[in-house]
Amino acid sequence: MLKLLFLSIAILALHPSFSSGEQCKLSAPPPTSPLTGLLPCTLYNNGFANIWASDHQTISDDQNHVTIELDASSGTGFKTKTTYVYGFFNAAIKVPSNDYTAGVINTFYTSNAEIYPNTHDEIDFEFLGRIPGEECILQTNVYANGSTNVGREQRHRLWFDPTKDFHDYSILWTPEHVVWFVDDIPIREFPNLTGQKADAVYPGKQMYLYATIWDGSDWATDGGKYRANFSYAPFVASYSNFIVCGCALPQPSSPLAPVCDREFSNAKLFPSQLSTRHRRNIQWAQANYMTYDYCQDKNRYPTPPPECATSPPKIHEQIDNEQHEIGVDDEL
Ligand SMILES: *[C@@H]1O[C@H](CO)[C@@H](O)[C@H](O)[C@H]1NC(C)=O
Ligand SMILES: *[C@@H]1O[C@H](CO)[C@@H](O)[C@H](O)[C@H]1NC(C)=O
Ligand SMILES: *[C@@H]1O[C@H](CO)[C@@H](O)[C@H](O)[C@H]1NC(C)=O
Predict the structure, then answer these.
(1) Considering the entire predicted model, what is its pTM?
(2) CB of 229 shorter than 6 A to ligand 3
(3) What InterPro entries does its record include (predicted)?
């Protein structure tokens, strides 16, 4: 499945005319260096467990496909059995294809709110439901050490229809940065500027990885203007191809393990800086598909949060060395 995805991306890049009739309207994704193909899949029963309403969840016999559904009685979700400090987390996701999904939120995110309710960290992908005729919007966000009074949302349209097929959504979290990827294309970077900039925040405590579907009518669609309508239910989201490649810390109270630093800081697989190609990928995604950026919301943040000055990222020519690009010549 992953190989097929890459193959089709490669074909798309080489022969734009082979893809759908819509291609001429869309800006084709730029070439990137896939990380997902370098890492092993995690089977559901090895890595995850249901959180609530298990009757709204199905798991395939091969433990590689999970559906979660929302109806009038309940949503549902699952999370990893243990917590991680740093990591690369991926799921291939197909979002609900119902004509009307306003109010419906389905997610893929890391959080430790259960362990640290007042100082929690969180890294989000959130698909926001839509009314007929509107495009799916993917929201990303990050909280650090309880900074929930500062929402750091970005919103992107996608260069494909996320209801039609599975696409990979990945979170990379290292000591240096958080990077959100869609089909291995980085769409956003959040740098760790603590110690460099006053008031900078960065997620620093072990987190679980979650996937959920729930009724977010109060804010999901046009700020809550359109609410969930359960005559269109059930809303079913499908997940597959899990990658849970993190530094496991089974005891929720243990301090940040130095071993995790060693594993994820400057590791060959996860360079501490984005390659030039990845920076161009982010610029491409932001220029063509970003519909909202908290850094540019002057009404909300007259003084933008500290990381905004460095966003969007600049191209630093001195790191323009293709050999160090993620995934090109690295082994697991
Ligand atoms: C997180 O917040 C708590 C409570 O406000 C504070 O004591 C702690 O120093 C903060 N940790 C970091 C890493 O900023
Ligand atoms: C963020 O960067 C600072 C400065 O390099 C470092 O001390 C800290 O450990 C990093 N935070 C995390 C959570 O890795
Ligand atoms: C829900 O959708 C149905 C079918 O389109 C419609 O008849 C009904 O009025 C909607 N309900 C609400 C509360 O909007």
Answers:
(1) 0.86
(2) yes
(3) Beta-glucanase-like (IPR000757), Beta-glucanase/XTH (IPR044791), ConA-like_dom_sf (IPR013320), GH16_AS (IPR008263), XET_C (IPR010713), XTH (IPR016455)
